[in-house]
Amino acid sequence: MDRICVVGGGTAGWIAAGYFAAKKYKVTLIESSDTGIVGVGESTVPAINWLAGELGLSEDEWMPLANATYKLGIKHEDWRKNKQPWWHWFLYDRRKHHTQMKHIEDGTLPPFDLLEYGYHIDAYKFGETICKESALKNNCEHIIDHIEDIKTQDDKVLSLHTKSGRMITADFFIDCSGFRKLLAEKIGMKYKSYPELINNSAVASSVFGLDTSERVTTTKARSAGWIWHIPLQNRHGCGYVYSDKFINKDQATEEFLKEYPSVNKDEVRHFKFNPEVCTESIKGNVAVAGLSGGFIEPLEGTSVFLSFFMVRQAYKYVIGERSAKVLNRNAVRIFDETKNFVLCHYTLSDRDDTEYWKYYNNLEQNLNTKDHAVEKSQRSDYGKWVEGRLFSEYSWYSLADYFV
C-alpha cells in the first residue's frame, strides 16, 4: 500500500496525514470547506510529544505553534461532599506525590526522566499549524472539495467523487470525517455505545484575562456534569460537559456563564456527542481515527491521544505488522479501559445533591465499580507510560484512594 487518502481535516485528519507523509507515503487529504471544527479537547497525555517527535519537531519548536503549556496533572474539584480536591498526576510511583506537588507550588518543571508531564494545547492549531505544515512539507496533496459519492465494492472503497468532478483513488483510506463517519457508514463499520456514560452535550468558550501560568488542568463537578478549565499561552479553554437528560442547553449555558461571567453568551458554542467506539476500526481498506473512531468524553484529556493511537494502529496494519482482527481488539480494549476509568469518577462519588448524582449513586449499586477500582489499584506500579496502557495502576490507585 503506497497511496493513502485521508478524508477530513481538523486535528485527527492532519495527524493522520502528517504521520503517514513523514513515513514517505503518497498522501492525499481531502476536506470540505463547509465543515466546522469541533476542537473541544485541549488537554493531553504525555504521548503527544511522541507524535511531534515522529514529525521531526522538538518540544521547543511545536509548543509555541500550538499555544501549548505544560500539564503536570489534573486537579479534580467538588467530586465528593467533603470538597477535598483529587490530584491525578502524570507519574507512576505513588511515593513521589509530594515531589510533584512541590513543582505545582513553585512553578518548576520536573525532569521528564523522573516525572512525566503532559500538555495543554490548542487542538486546532496543533492539527492545522503543526501536522498540516509537516504533511505539506512531505508532499501531502491537500484538496478542498466536497465528497458527493463514494464507490465501494464489498468492504473496500474504490473511489471518491467530489462536487467539482474529481475522482480520488487510493490503496488505503483513513476516515477522519468526525461524527459524519462518511466512509465508516458507507462500508458498514459497527459501533458499540457506552450507555453508562450519560454525558452527551457540552458548552464551550475561550476565556481571556485569567492566569495562564497554571500547569494543571482543572475540573469542577457541577449539577449535571463537570466544567473543564485549561490554561494555554494566550487564553483558557473552558467548557461544561453535561447530560441533557437532567438539564437543557439554556440551563447548562447559564451554569457555565455563572462560572465565567466575562464570556459573552453569543460566543458560547454547543456540542452533542455519543460515547461509543468503532468495533471494526479497520475494515477492508478503510481505517477510522478521531471522532469517526469513537469518543468517550473530554474527562481525563484522552481525545487527542486516542486519535493518535488510532492512526498508529492504521500504520501497523498498512505495514503488515498486525492483522485487522488484532488491531480492532486493541482499539476496543483501550476505549473500554478509558470508559471504565472515566465512569468511576461518577459512580464512586458520594454526591447526591441533584438527580444527576443520584443516578450515578444508583448505578454503582448495579455495576459495583468500587471493587473494580480497588482491584485495579492493588497491582504493583507499572512504571512510565507505554503505548496500549492509557491508565496505569497508579491512576487507579489515586482514584481509589480518593473515592474509596
Give a brief outline of the structure:
The protein has twelve helices and 22 strands.
Word description of this protein:
This protein starts with a strand and ends with a helix. The strands form five sheets. It has a seven-stranded mixed beta sheet. The chain has a domain of 183 residues: 3-Layer(bba) Sandwich (FAD/NAD(P)-binding domain), CATH 3.50.50. By secondary structure, the protein is α+β, with helices and mostly antiparallel strands. The mean pLDDT is 88. 35% of the residues lie in helices and 24% in strands. The radius of gyration is 21 Å and the shape is globular. The longest helix has 24 residues.
SSE topology sketch:
Blueprint: E1 3-7, H1 10-22, E2 26-31, E3 43-44, H2 48-54, H3 59-65, E4 69-71, E5 73-77, E6 86-89, H4 97-106, E7 118-120, H5 123-137, E8 141-144, E9 147-153, E10 156-162, E11 167-168, E12 172-175, H6 182-186, E13 191-193, E14 201-207, E15 216-222, E16 225-231, E17 236-242, H7 249-259, E18 269-272, E19 276-278, E20 282-283, E21 286-288, E22 294-295, H8 303-318, H9 324-347, H10 355-367, H11 369-377, H12 393-403
Helix pairs in contact: 1-5, 1-8, 8-9, 11-12
Quaternary state reads: single chain
Q: Which structural class is indicated by helix and strand composition?
A: alpha+beta
Strand content: 15-25%
Number of strands: 22
- How would you sum up the major sheet? 7 strands, mixed
**Gyration radius over CA:** 21 Å
Strand order of the largest sheet: 6-5-15-16-17-14-18
Helix content: 25-40%
CATH architecture term of the domain at 3-39 and 46-62 and 121-193 and 275-330 = 3-Layer(bba) Sandwich
Task: Work out the helix count.
Answer: 12
CATH topology of the domain at 3-39 and 46-62 and 121-193 and 275-330: FAD/NAD(P)-binding domain
Shape: globular
